[in-house]
Each structure stands twice: as structure tokens, then as C-alpha cells.
Amino acid sequence: MVTWSGKKVGLVLGGGGVRGFSHVGVLKVLEEKGIPFDLIVGTSAGALIGAAYASGQSPEEIQEKIDVYMRSPEFEESSIKSIGESFFTEQKSFFQKTQTFIKNRLLFAQAFFKSSVLPSNDFESLINFFLPDIDIREARMPLRVVSTDLTTGSRIVFSEGSLRQTVLASCSVPGALAPVRYGEMLLADGGITSLVPVRAAREAGADIVIAVMVDRDLSKSVNIETAKDILYRAGEITANALEAAEIEGADVIIRPHVGDIHWMDFTRARDLFKAGEDAAREALGRIEASLPYHRRLIRFFGRLIKRNNK
Questions:
Q1: For residues 47 and 146, what is the distance between their CA atoms, to the nearest angstrom?
Q2: Model-level pTM?
């Protein structure tokens, strides 16, 4: 991973559930504008989208796959869709609301006896649909997948191993998805220890880091009355503080405006694609300014050749 200028550019894709679809819009603009990067580091949803791109899929192909998956029988019959429907902003009939309520109460009741709300095979089918069955080292560009070992509490950064298994582990949100046994480790969501993995990119040799944050801002209009409310709010504050501390190490931050979109609301996919595109276009000036002179020169000639070939 050596560039002409000797400077390595890392693209960091943060976690945020379905809000990670906005990463696709960011990648589309970076590719369209010829912004060079040498490494992708992803957590959770960022690991899934980053792995799909690093394995050779274009942003347009990833977007098409998302559309196809959301129309598939597997998604229609999955618990992923059922629980996600709880957060849809569209109007639903009384029958639909009642049906969703009962089904989700049964699913959440299982959490007291099982390790997760969502069945593992539902999410595994999603991972297998998006990603090839290869080793991380076989990806077309350097890739790092960030997860957390629940046994030791350590941040784990994969540069080799099963692409599907490591991404599944990185996406395993505690409570929602069962942790993944990988050798001696019990792996869960990378966002527990590194929601926007800037440090992992630096450790992998990135001199310049472009980070994409897709998490929501900490809401101020929230009811804090019960013990559960207090515990949940405390967790949000801790995660927000850790994220802010790590993101300070990035050279450029791209922040798609995801609004109040819930991390499991699949109905807003197209809004998220556009949010990513808009945020990346807004950041282009800052990105270009952060690139070494040689990279900017390469990009200039690349655009010139592209224009002359039209």
C-alpha cells in the first residue's frame, strides 16, 4: 500500500445500522470525483458496505443489491423487517400496528431466554447476499474490519480471515444479534469499542484519514423517568463521548444528515443514499485540501483524461 507521494489515504466508515446506507452515497461521489484512497476501515454497517466495495462491487451495484434484497422473499419473511417496521414513519392501519406490536413483543420476550432478539440466520443470509465467501486478504483493496471481543473487552481489527464471518461479528449489535464465536474470541459489534475506527486506520498505516460518521446527534428531547431510561441514556452519552474523542484524529469528517432515522428503519434507504452523496459533495473542498500534492496532480490528470475520452 505505497502511493506515489508516500502518503497513504484511509477511508473510515462508521457504524449506525441502516443509516450506514449513506456510505454508499459517499463512495459514489468519491469514485465519481476520482478521490483516491488506499485503505478502507469499517465498523458494523461501515464494515458491511466497505467490504462490499473492497471486494469489487461499485456503489451502484451495492445500491442495486440493497434494493433487490429489500424486495426479496427472505427480507419479507425476516424478523429484521418485522422489528424495523416498528420504527417506520409512514402511516399504518390499526390491523398492521396490532400485528407488528404482537409479533415484536413475542420476539423481545425471547431476549430473556436467548442471546439475541433477531435469529442469527436472518442476518447471516443478508451478509451472504452482499459479500463473497473469501478471505479479507483476497479483497481488491486493503480492508480492515473492526469488532469487539466480549471476553476480554478488546477492540479487534481483522486484516485477514473470513470476510463474511468477521463482518457478521462487526455487525452483531448486543441484544439484537447473537455474538459470533471466532476461535477463542466471542465477537460483537465493533461500535462497542470503536464506532468510527480512526485509530484502526492510523494503526494500519494511513497518513490521511477521511472519516464518515452516520450516527445521530444526541437527542435533547428525551423522556428520562424510569431506571431503564436512565441506563439507556447513560449508554448513549458514553458512546457519544468515545466517538467524539476518536473522531478528533481524522483529517476530514463527512457527516451525512440522517436526521431521526432509526438504525433499523429500512424504508428510508433512498433518503440515506442521497444524504451520503450530499455530505460527500459538501466535503469535496476539504478532502482535496487534505490530499498530498502528488495525489491532487494524479486526480487532475485523471479528470482531464476522462473529459477527453468523452
A1: 7
A2: 0.82
